[in-house]
Write a structure and sequence with these properties.
Distance between the termini of chain A: 52 Å
Helix content of chain B: 25-40%
Shape of chain A: globular
Strand order of the largest sheet of chain A: 7-11-6-1-4-5-12
Number of helices of chain B: 6
CATH superfamily of the largest domain in chain A: HUPs
Structural class of chain A: alpha/beta
Low-confidence stretches of chain A: none
Bound molecules: flavin-adenine dinucleotide, adenosine monophosphate
Shape of chain B: globular
Strand order of the largest sheet of chain B: 11-10-9-12-8-1-6-7-13
Largest interface: A-B, 100 and 88 residues
Strand content of chain B: 25-35%
Strand content of chain A: 25-35%
Oligomer: heterodimer
Number of strands of chain A: 18
CATH class of the largest domain in chain A: Alpha Beta
CATH architecture of the largest domain in chain A: 3-Layer(aba) Sandwich
Largest sheet of chain B: 9 strands, mixed
Number of domains of chain B: 1
Mean pLDDT of chain A: 94
Mean pLDDT of chain B: 92
Helix content of chain A: 25-40%
Low-confidence stretches of chain B: none
CATH superfamily of chain B: HUPs
Distance between the termini of chain B: 57 Å
Order of helices and strands of chain B: EEEEEHEHEHEHEEEEHEEEH
Largest sheet of chain A: 7 strands, parallel
CATH topology of the largest domain in chain A: Rossmann fold
């Protein structure tokens, strides 16, 4: 028997769809493993989020609304998770594959002496053995990798890979006791927002991405943002655009940026260099707008419209908005 | 101050990568290896610190690679690192994050350090898990995704990137950081650097030398295969903006995406 624990990433109680995807998946896995399904919510606003998680098919939602979690980087979070995992017993811990989630997962796995499987898009179960399906080597290989026979396994799960489905009889809420005092070593002095946090790039169902072809910072806000808003998505960028200072590096997609797998990726004025491709090749549908019909992106997109982005994008945004009216 | 920079050597992005069906390991020999691109940024950050902190600061490279590819590290020595420690042992081939971090921790402890600097992600394994795990194994704070660093009085203050901006975080040394690309473009090696690198020391260590006893991976690759194929795009010349927009709109409709 193995239990499954979902870590709920959030910011002051605001969370993203991936949290509910993990909660749902925790239940499905736990059923197959004959164990129970748990979620853990920590920090400011945890109470409200925990409440919303009780509507998902979990057995227990563990909460600690402890200000130290937000005042110190990672240490208190890892202490809580370690304590909870040890109390629950042999389990698989699911963490979102986001910037923060990757840090949580790697620290927790080392702490628990657990295996770590990253960027997981599926699970395969054989008895009590859990294997994770994940793209590797820049997406050229899809691997199935099992957790060895140890007590814990930690998986970072790719957003949008699993469905979120409320249900169940209503989870029990439990308050987590504060773990024994260990020094918290990394103090968060301040926090500055540069990009919208409503929708993380890695979780967005649609990404509208701009490259050198946009020629400056302004088109990202005047051209791409309205299209992304119309589609309910987020904006991204090529490295050329980030290097030029048009957008923060946090929006860069590719080998040295983020990996995204939205259901729709629109590449505007991006040539499709291999370093960009490895960050977006697993998107469901890829549409490119480019002046050059022979740009490398033509080799791996579904539709390439050859033309001027400055003409096409506003017209497309209008078509989409009008269709909703 | 002693800075240790972890550097992985990875197959060139354009090289055809192959997993050996028998051992289920990435074939790392017989192909061109390069410095993991992210780790060039880690080295750049370390070299910037050395410039600021003065000459009694040393920058040591730490890499776990097959011995045959260790010469690739000359490029990093030419950029300005002082020396390198290479951990190379058949027992460690195919290590997962847990074993890699445990092994690197063994060597880092042996070298001694005030600061360990890691890249954010390795090009081949791409778990991004080693920096956090290494911090745990070393029992030091792990300040990840730093893009701007200051060190004074034994304390680091860093801006670290988050999903939506950045945080300013402080911690005491010894510590581990991982960096993002925003620390600055890696420098080119000067001619003098390239000549000097030939004489710099690359120390070779076995698992036993590093005091590494833990060599059993916590994960096991069962199988692998190609991703669903992507075909070449339908290419449509747009007569004007409106026509181009209509083509895309119709296509998105067809796929039920709008
Ligand atoms: C180690 C390393 C790591 C890297 N990591 C990354 C990474 O993570 N992500 C990444 O993206 N890149 C990365 N790169 C850089 C990559 O090699 C390319 O240089 C970069 O992706 C190019 O960006 P781009 O497509 O925006 O620019 P370009 O290649 O210059 O392409 C611009 C495109 O815009 C089109 N265009 C111009 N004007 C218009 C218009 N008005 N309307 C429509 N189309 C127009 C042009 O035809 C052209 O195809 C990396 C490189 C290295 C060496
Ligand atoms: N075998 C290795 N030798 C040295 N450094 C490594 C090794 N594996 C990982 N690292 C470091 O850890 C970072 C993240 O790697 P990974 O967790 O494998 O994606 C890299 O950028 C390196 O700095």
């Amino acid at each position: 028997m193995r239990h499954v624990i979902a870590f709920a990433e959030h910011r002051k109680g605001q969370t993203r769809k991936v949290t509910y995807e993990l909660a749902t998946q925790a239940h499905e896995l736990a059923q197959k493993l004959g164990g129970t399904a748990h979620a853990i919510v920590l920090g400011e606003g945890a109470g409200a989020l925990a409440e919303s998680l009780t509507k998902y098919p979990l057995d227990v939602v563990h909460v600690a609304e402890d200000p130290d979690v937000d005042a110190y980087l990672l240490d208190p979070t890892i202490d809580y998770l370690e304590g909870a995992a040890r109390a629950i017993g042999s389990s698989i811990v699911l963490v979102p594959n986001t910037m923060y989630g990757r840090d949580v997962a790697s620290r927790l796995a080392a702490r628990l002496g657990a295996g770590l499987n990253a960027d997981v898009t599926g699970f395969a179960i054989d008895g009590e053995r859990v294997a994770c399906i994940a793209p590797k080597l820049g997406g050229v290989t899809i691997t199935t990798c099992a957790f060895e026979d140890c007590e814990y396994g930690v998986a970072t799960v790719r957003p949008n890979a699993f469905a979120a489905q409320p249900g169940g009889a209503g989870a029990r809420l439990e308050t987590l006791a504060k773990p024994d005092a260990k020094p918290y070593r990394m103090r968060i002095v301040n926090e500055v927002e540069e990009a919208s946090s409503e929708l993380g790039l890695e979780e967005a169902p649609v990404v509208v991405s701009g490259g050198r072809g946009l020629g400056g910072a302004e088109p990202f806000t005047t051209l791409l943002k309205p299209l992304a808003d119309a589609l309910g998505g987020a904006i991204g960028a090529s490295r050329a655009a980030a290097d030029a200072g048009w957008v923060p590096y946090s929006l860069q997609i590719g080998q040295t940026g983020k990996t995204v797998s939205p259901k729709l990726y629109i590449a505007v004025g991006i040539s499709g260099a291999i370093q960009h491709k490895v960050g977006m090749r697993s998107a469901g549908t890829i549409v490119a707008i480019n002046k050059d019909g022979t740009a490398p992106i033509s080799e791996f997109s579904d539709l390439l419209v050859v033309g001027d982005a400055f003409q096409i994008v506003p017209a497309l945004t209008k078509l989409i908005n009008d269709s909703k009216a | 101050m002693r800075i240790v920079v972890t550097v992985k050597l990875v197959p060139d992005l354009n090289a055809e990568k192959r997993i050996d069906p028998a051992t289920k390991r990435l074939v790392r020999t017989g192909m061109e290896t390069v410095l993991n691109p992210y780790d060039e940024y880690a080295l750049e950050a370390a070299l910037q610190l050395k410039e600021k902190l003065g000459d009694d600061t040393t920058v040591t490279l730490l890499s776990m690679v097959p011995e045959s590819s260790k010469e690739t590290l000359r490029k990093a020595l030419a950029m300005g690192a002082d020396d390198a420690h290479v951990l190379s042992d058949e027992k460690l081939s195919g290590s997962d994050v847990f074993v890699t971090a445990a092994a690197l921790a063994g060597v880092a402890r042996k070298i001694g350090f005030d600061l360990v600097v890691c890249g954010g992600l390795a090009d081949d394994g791409s778990t991004g898990g080693v920096p956090g795990a290494l911090a745990e194994h070393l029992g030091v704070p792990g300040l990840t995704n730093a893009r701007h660093l200051e060190i004074s009085d034994g304390t680091i203050t860093a801006q670290r990137e988050t999903d939506s901006g950045y945080q300013t975080v402080t911690c005491a040394l010894p510590a581990l950081i991982s960096v993002t690309m925003a620390v600055g473009e890696p420098r080119y090696a000067s001619l003098k650097g390239i000549m000097g690198a030939k004489r710099k020391n690359i120390a070779l260590l076995s698992a036993a030398d590093a005091g590494v006893t833990e060599t059993t991976s916590r994960t096991e690759l069962l199988s692998f295969g190609p991703p669903p194929a992507r075909t070449k795009a339908r290419i449509v010349e747009a007569a004007d903006g409106a026509a181009g927009a209509q083509t895309i709109f119709d296509f998105l409709r067809e796929r039920k995406l709008v």
